[in-house]
Every structure is written in C-alpha cells, then in structure tokens.
Design brief:
This protein is an all-beta fold. Helix content is about 0%, strand content about 50%.
C-alpha cells in the first residue's frame, strides 16, 4: 500500500513588488504535485496558521495583494494543496507598503506669491514643502509640519527673475516620500520710465519696457487709492513690445487713479504688479507728477 501525502510546503517565498501604492506581490516556486495554493497574511509575525488570515486561493504563483494600507508592514506565509490535503506553512516573509508621495504637483503665480498644490488622498504623516533654484542640489524648506492631508501651500517668499522648483515631501516616522518636482519661472516687474502728467492733465508714461524674462507686459487702471489687484482693475493694454509714450486720455479728472504694470512669461505666469498712483487734477489745474505707491 502507498500512503497518500499532502504536497510539500512552497519554497523560495518572497515579496517581488513592494513599490506600488497599496499593493504587495508574493511569489514562490511551484510545487510539482500541487493543484493550488493558499496565501495567508497577518499584520504581525506569527508561527501557526491561526495567527494569519487566508487572503487568497490561487492555482499558481504569484499573488498580488491589493487594497492594503499605506506604509503598513504585512507578513505572509503560503501553503500548497492537492486532493490529499494541505501542506505545512512556508517560511514567513514580510514587507511594508510604500508611503505615498503627493502627486500631480502644480503651481500658480498669485501676485508676488506662488501657490503650490497637489493631489492628496491620504492623511499619513506630515508634509514639507521644499524650494530650490539649482535642481535640489541645495534645498530650502519653506514650510514643514503640514498635516498629511493638506492639499496646497502659498509661498510668500520667492525671489523674482529666476527659475524655482518645488517638491512636496511626506514624512511618516522614519519613512519619507518625495513628489516629482515642478518648475516655475518668476518674471520680473515691468520697467516703467518717466511716469507723469501729459496733455489735458492726463497720466502719461514715456515707456513701459518688456523685461528679458517676459514675453509681454500688461497695463491696468483702477479708480481710487487702495484698489484690490486684480479684482478692481481694468486691463488697458497688453504688449509684447515696449509701450512708448502712452497717455491715458480716458482717465477721469479730479480723482485718484491707480495703475498696475505686470510682466507675463511664455507660460502665462504673471508677475506681481508694480503699482503707481496719482491724483488726476482738473484739466486746467497745475501739473503734478506721479508717485510710486509703496
């Protein structure tokens, strides 16, 4: 007589993919007389089958375990089975799922500031926003300790006329995950020459130059002494060449008028405004000069 034996336990069990968010792939060598395999998982190391939960019944290796928590350690064992029964447990393997980085990082210039925003579907750990002007050979941390589910940050401190990169770093314990960097070109102010009052006591600008880092300049007007940019301004002109000898003949007399000049780069990013304000006198009044509003 021959004794019917269960198959041998799988050997060479290993985690072959631990780099995909929320997934771990368990692989092993096939057993010659096995017709299927059971995969067992736990969140702490175990020694007996009762220490694990069966998560799969498959006919061949490998097995990809999906829907797992981020940055969580998992422990696995595998058994083989056939018509004669189930094998002993394999050797135990373990791996930790990846800590997700912020994805789709983007940026928007808002006046003198840069808003950095990103997709965020987890609240793990804390976030740090980093800035660099040399490809992250040197790194400046502009904000740290942000809650893990924070979706954006407004950087109020970048210098103008330079290319800046941002990235978002997630930190959870000793683990870190860096986002892909995003670049932004910060245009300079428009260059304003000899503002003053021209014919009929209307505001006049001898020249508004286009900086080398910009593709155009925009020229706005608002009525009043403290208008909010850009909400309370009207765009008067946009030009890719120097605006020469411009007079605002439609400016109302006997009122305060405020002008804003901005530069725009080839990506449509607009610089913070250079604000100039004047009181436009009656047409027959003495001429006054225009001052910069600081």
């Amino acid at each position: 007589t021959y004794e019917s034996l269960a198959p041998a336990a799988p050997s060479n069990v290993q985690i072959t993919d631990a780099q995909t968010e929320g997934k771990l792939t368990v692989d092993w060598d096939a057993v010659s007389d096995a017709t299927g395999y059971y995969v067992y998982r736990a969140e702490s190391s175990g020694s007996a089958k009762a220490d694990y939960t069966q998560v799969a019944d498959v006919t061949s290796p490998p097995y990809t375990d999906v829907g797992l928590d981020d940055n969580q350690q998992y422990f696995y064992r595998v058994t083989s089975e056939n018509q004669n029964g189930e094998s002993d447990l394999s050797a135990e393997v373990n791996a930790t799922t990846v800590l997700p980085s912020a994805s789709d990082v983007n940026r928007t210039i808002r006046g003198a500031n840069v808003e950095v925003n990103w997709n965020n579907d987890t609240n793990l750990g804390e976030l740090e926003v980093q800035r660099s002007t040399d490809g992250f050979q040197t790194v400046e941390t502009v904000e740290s300790g942000l809650p893990g589910n924070t979706p954006s940050f407004l950087d109020r401190g970048p210098q103008r006329s330079q290319q800046v990169e941002y990235r978002v770093v997630r930190q959870d314990g000793n683990d870190t995950a860096e986002s892909a960097p995003v670049q932004v070109e910060l245009p300079t102010f428009a260059e304003i020459v000899n503002p003053g009052i021209g014919r009929k006591n209307k505001p006049r600008f001898n020249a508004v130059g286009v900086p080398s880092s910009a593709s155009s300049v925009r020229f706005y007007r608002a009525i009043g002494q403290q208008p909010v940019f850009p909400d309370e301004y009207t765009l008067l002109e946009e030009s890719s060449t120097k605006i020469s000898d411009f007079e605002d003949l439609d400016a109302p007399n006997d009122q305060y008028v405020t002008y804003a000049f901005t530069s725009v780069d080839s990506n449509g990013n607009e610089s913070d405004p250079d604000i100039r304000q004047t009181f436009v006198p009656p047409q027959d009044a003495t001429v006054v000069n225009m001052n910069e509003d600081t």
